[in-house]
Amino acid sequence: MAKTRIQHLHDTNNGVTWTHWTEEAKKRFEEQNPGVEIEVLAMGRTQLLERVVTLWAANLLPDVVELAPELGYEFMKQGLFQDLNPYMEKDPNLKWEEFFPLAVRAVTEGGTSGGKRWLLPGSVWVIGAAFNVDLFNEAGVDLPLGDEQWTWSDFAATAKKLTVSAPDGQITRYGACIPRSWARWPVWVHNAGGFFLDSYFEPTRSQLLDPPVRTALQFLQDAYQTDRFASWNDAYNAGRTPITFEAGPSRTPLLVEAGATFEFAYGPYPRLVRGGSEIQILGWSLSARTENPDVSWRWMRFLATDMASDHIRFTGRPPAWRTVAARYQSLVKYHSPWEHVWVRLIEHPDTYPRAIYEVSIRDTLQRYINIIFEGRQDVDSTLEQAHQVISAMLQEKIGSR
Fold first, then answer.
1. Which of 82, 102, 190, 200 has its CA 20 to 30 A from that of 118?
2. For residue 239, is it left (φ>0), alpha (ψ between -120 and 50) or beta?
3. Are 219 and 165 in contact, with CB atoms under 8 Å apart?
């Protein structure tokens, strides 16, 4: 009797450890389901996104597609993926409530409780702060890890104390690293109490002129240009940067692989109005044209739940399924005393899901943000220019819907 074949489109940009985990999951699922064959089609992200379009047009889209919400949302709006709510409703052993609430919100159309849920969350990525404890102790500076969450002013004062300059004024040790990419600076705007768009899902209006946006970007411009904090992260693993905001669940393995010998600790972003982090969800969508929806759902469910413990062991990432994520500290391969921080940041009441908007808007806005961060123009006039351009792009997008 012929086996049921399920095609799984896998994004190799998720990392080689994710690929190995997927291969292990395929092996175990096929052992438990001898009548099923999982065919993993592995490719890089750019190619995957292109292939989704061409394969759908040719009626050949694989049964299961591995995606992040910000990458697959438009495909969902165009009808490529099924609503997973009916599958969850008839599943006797799994409920949406078992996943992190923010993960469920991130995979829901419009981010509303009653919307179509088009992606089964599998993995959560979150960013926080990493500290070089040895450099703090050397400078006689307290770590910002007390019961009260540290503030923006606490951070600025602490990082200044940790900055070391030569007699000629050249920085010999940067007090902090604040990455300035499109995936990192928005959390500062969020924590200032606003956002640069009117919604995290399907935005229709620019909010670049709102006070929280200006507050955050002025703070960051001052951090780079006046306080002279770094915007790159190459020195932290080498033990030469006291604070970095480019730390996530992979940081400990990177430190181990780099042979780092210094004591480290992890913690949250500093608070202004809010003190949260941004999370990114990765998971699996079910093709609207699959001929084997129930078997495909079983495979997706297997990845999200049965393989969740191994997802931690293989990739170091917290799973979206809270039942296993609660044991993250003990399951992660290189477990320091600080790995619990990542789950705590995911559950922080101020944490939010990565916004979903056009890549063209993202890249255009980033050019203006770079002008601000590089000190080439003042914050207010740059935001005025950016607001006009982004507003026009949003209106064009709305008109094309």
1. 190
2. left
3. no
* CATH class (in words) of the domain with range 128-278: alpha beta
Residue type, position 373, single letter: F
pTM score, whole prediction: 0.94
Task: State residue 401's pLDDT score.
Answer: 60
Where residue 126 falls (left for φ over 0; alpha for ψ -120 to 50; beta otherwise) is beta
Give the CATH class of 4-125+280-353: alpha beta
Dist. CA 240–CA 243, nearest whole Å:
9
Q: Taking Cα atoms as reference points, which of 270, 151, 171, 152 lies closest to residue 219?
A: 152
Angle made by CA atoms 398, 284, 29, in degrees to the nearest 5:
170
Give the bridge partners for 117, in sequence order: 108
Q: What is the DSSP letter of 336?
A: -
Cα(53)–Cα(65) distance, rounded to whole angstroms?
Answer: 12
Q: What is the pLDDT of residue 185?
A: 98
Integer angstrom CA distances of residue 106 from 278, 320, 379: 11, 11, 31
Question: How large is the greatest C-alpha to C-alpha distance in the chain, in angstroms?
Answer: 79
> Concatenated DSSP letters for 111-152?
G-TTS-B-SEEEEEEE-EEEEEHHHHHHHT---S-SSSPPBH
* Mean pLDDT in order along the chain per 10 residues (401 residues): 94 97 99 98 97 97 98 95 98 97 95 86 97 97 91 98 93 95 97 97 96 99 96 84 94 90 97 98 98 98 99 97 96 91 97 95 98 98 99 87 60
Let me know if 78 is exposed, middle or buried by CB neighbors in 10 A (0-12, 13-18, 19+): exposed
List Cα–Cα distances, 292 to 32, 168, 175, 296, in angstroms.
17, 69, 55, 6
Report yes or no: 40 and 22 within 8 Å, Cβ to Cβ: yes
Count of CB atoms situated within 10 Å of the CB of 326: 13
Do 4-125+280-353 and 128-278 have matching folds? yes
Give the dihedral sign, CA 173/178/180/184.
Answer: positive
Distance CA 241, CA 138 (A): 13
